[in-house]
Amino acid sequence: MEIFRLKNLYLSSLFILLTSCAIPLKYKLAEQRNITATDAQPLVLDDNTMLYKTQIFLFNNYYTGMLLHKQTDSSTSHLVFVTELGMKMFDIEIKRDGLKMLYCFAPMNKPKITNLLEQDMGLILLYQLLNKSGKIYVDTKEGRTLYVTRESGKRHFYYTQGKSNRITKSLVKGALFTKQKTVYKFGVDNLPESVSLKHKGLLRLKIKLNRIVTTKAND
Amino acid sequence: MLKQKLYLLFCVFSVSLFAQTGFKTAKDTALLKEKINAISKETNSLESDFTQVKMLSMLSEKITSKGHFCFKKDNLLRWEYVSPYTYVIVINKDKVFIKDDTKLKKYDMNSNKIFKEINDIMISCIDGNILASNKFKISYGENDKAYRLELTPLVKGMKESLKVIYMYFDKAVTSVTKLEMVETTDDFTIIDFTNKKVNGNIPAEKFILK
User: Fold this and answer.
1) CATH number for the domain that contains residue B41
2) In this complex, is the C-beta atom of B155 within 8 Å of any C-beta atom belonging to chain A?
3) Could you tell me the domains of chain A?
4) In angstroms, rounded to a whole number, what is the distance separating the alpha carbons of residues B94 and A117?
5) Contacts of A218 in chain B (CB under 8 A)
6) Rounded to whole angstroms, how far apart are CA atoms B62 and B109?
7) What residues in B contact A78, CB-CB < 8 Å?
8) Any CB–CB contact under 8 A between B80 and chain A?
9) Which of A151, A181, B8, B92 has the CA that lies 20 to 30 A from B173?
């Protein structure tokens, strides 16, 4: 009985190991090259200010407010999170060479938290996909594309919606388990209506964004 | 780019201009303190509409929110936002309720230091108890139409985020008419209170969310 249990444990572990690292069978490798904005539509288009109603669950704290994304010049944009009561919680500068926390509200300003926010906001904005070298897999039956990139020993999987270049789901996988999962839902204007990110593990983070459609994004 | 720089310059200029427009050191600070202390004692409840403008100076962007506000002694506060989306936050002593669409969340105020800090500032500004606080250096100003208190944070943990808070009172000193919070990054938030009702009857249910 004991041997049978052990066998089952080894087999199920092996199954998890194999399936967690595998590319779904229906996808076939097409090519490997730099992924561009033509392959995958960026979350925010240039010169387009976006405002999102935002919920952030960080460890045991819950923050709500608005997340503003704004392009400030041709190579720089900012992500600013402001609570409903008007307190700015963070301001992340986004440049080609990386995301940088410019400001974080004092009680939250700890390296563990700022690194986590930089990393996961970058993931939401497809920062680890665009202009990075990756493998392109195609589901010939349904026309969907899967982009696979590698960063810091983790594999990033980005799935498109049908034949379009819109990413609807991304997964970041470690050696055994999925660490982060992001899901995008698009509106009729081809811009994301909602985004949700779940970061598993010791550093728990959940981000939910819902677009606020206003005439000018600010009022 | 030039437009953004000009806008930034305008924002910085307008903040400093706004901070100085016609406000001189109050002639009789003892009388002003007395009046503020009196309204602090006499105000048992306050209800008003509000318009909140958050100015992100670096981004040349402003976010405007509108809603209804209720305050009742002691430590009961309700901010009901109706624009750009509906959102209600109720502070009932040491409990925080947040209603967002259909979701309701309840927290212990002491479990979230950030919330507690913001709430303490807000309540003490509205009920006038901020004068007794040793967390700020207070300067008193006035012009023809209003009194203005300039609160400069003194304590660690607050002065890293907030540069100054301005509280405006009408000349009759009946209640706070406007709050302006300037952050260390020069972003600022202005909350204008309109259609005020002092000491009206606010039902207790307003401060409980279910």
Assistant:
1) 2.50.20.10
2) no
3) 2-211 (2.50.20)
4) 29
5) 61-64
6) 29
7) 58-59
8) no
9) B92
CB contact under 8 A, A87 and B100: no
Give the whole-angstrom CA distance, residue B78 versus residue A80. 25
Which ipTM was obtained for this model?
A: 0.74
The residues, ordered by sequence, that sit 6+ positions from B77 with a Cβ below 8 Å of its Cβ are B70, B71, B89, B90, B91, B119, B122, B123, B126, B207
Q: Range of B73's domain?
A: 2-207
Identify all chain B residues contacting A108, using CB atoms and an 8 Å cutoff: 114
Burial of B85 (0-12, 13-18, 19+ CB in 10 A): middle
On whether any CB of chain B is under 8 Å from the CB of A189, the answer is no
Q: Is A88 on the interface with B (CB under 8 A)?
A: yes
With CB atoms and an 8 Å threshold, state whether B87 touches A86: no
Q: How many CA atoms lie within 13 A of A7 on its CB side?
A: 4
Task: For residues B110 and B187, give the distance between their C-alpha atoms in angstroms, rounded to a whole number.
Answer: 27
* Tens-level pLDDT at each residue, chain B (210 residues): 444 444 444 444 444 444 446 899 988 899 988 888 888 888 889 999 999 999 998 778 899 999 999 999 888 999 999 999 999 999 888 888 888 877 888 888 776 666 676 677 777 777 777 788 888 899 999 999 999 999 998 988 778 878 999 999 998 888 889 999 998 888 999 999 999 999 999 999 999 988
Instruction: Specify the number of domains making up chain B.
Output: 1
CA distance B69 to chain A (A): 12
The pair of three-digit structure tokens given for residue B32, joined into one six-digit string: 């002003």
> pLDDT of A53-81, one tens digit each?
999 998 878 888 999 998 888 888 999 99
Q: How many residues does chain A have?
A: 219
